[in-house]
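Data card: per-record layout.
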Amino acid sequence: MRARLERWLTGIWYEGRRSGWMPVLIGLSHLYGWVWGWRRSSQAFVLPIPVLVVGNLTAGGTGKTPLTLALALALRARGWHPGILSRGYGGRHSTPTEVTPTSAPEEVGDEPVLMAGRLLAPVWVGRARAAAGQALLRAHPEVDVILCDDGLQHRQLMRSVEVVVVDGGRGWGNGRLLPAGPLREPLSRLAQVDAVVVNQGSSSKMPTFHLEGSYAMRLSAFEWVHVQHPERRVPCTHFQGQTCIGVAGIGNPERFFSQLDSWGIQVQRYPFPDHHPYRRADLPADLRNPVLMTEKDAIKWRKLGLDDAWYLPLEALVDSALVDHLAILLTSKEPHG
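The structure for this 337-residue chain is written out next.
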């Protein structure tokens, strides 16, 4: 049901499909806009160190997690000691929790486990980000900057710097607020953020959205890693010419499938909603072909017993001018709500 609804909305938001429900959706968008304006007036908590939020204006994934990891790595190289906060979407946690590479994704969420596995920074999750930030600092007093993976619309935590990521293959869709369009906030919000990053992906087959004055980001992949035995690795071209099952439970599954197409892989597509709680029954019982998936999907498939399954770690390549710009702001800009 959820997957069908997402496909229907995606057609309206990004593909220009018409629907008799559009007047109702537009009416709900006006209500959403009123709620958004009311939430912006709520009081926010100030942490004693700078906070950098990596968020988006659209519903679904745009590449926030790869960018957060890339910024954590780049800031470390400049002498910072970052910590990472996430809501832990899809997890059952109710209090601030530290995430490790072996944490259960059903408890803390899939993306936090992915980030913790990179060993770049302590990762904490919490629905109340202010409380999670305080808990992180108590446990890791060496941290001198916090990166929030998502949370642009979470107004309870003051931030020094805001970065918006937009999917270069989709842009802003029809430019309407939810649910008539994909926008969580009006496009006028862009005038208030400190940087806009266009995720151009890694496939030449995807159309690219351009925005004047923005920074470009590309996703780079070098090898496939075995889901059950991560010491086993093969080049990205290893499956060229083969028929494989493609699994993607991310914000834009077609981006992943398009990448496989560009490598000459014959893909049997299995798209799922973002953060899908996988079961073994989601795939055929008798698998005769390799299963290829994203790194985020692999976090949840590790315990489901696939023998020939591989995931693709992605690294975000960002302009060094973006990091220089953000580093200056982190040392000079006052926090705001």
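Known properties of this structure: The chain has a mean pLDDT of 92. The first strand starts at residue 51 and ends at 55.

See the next section for split statistics.
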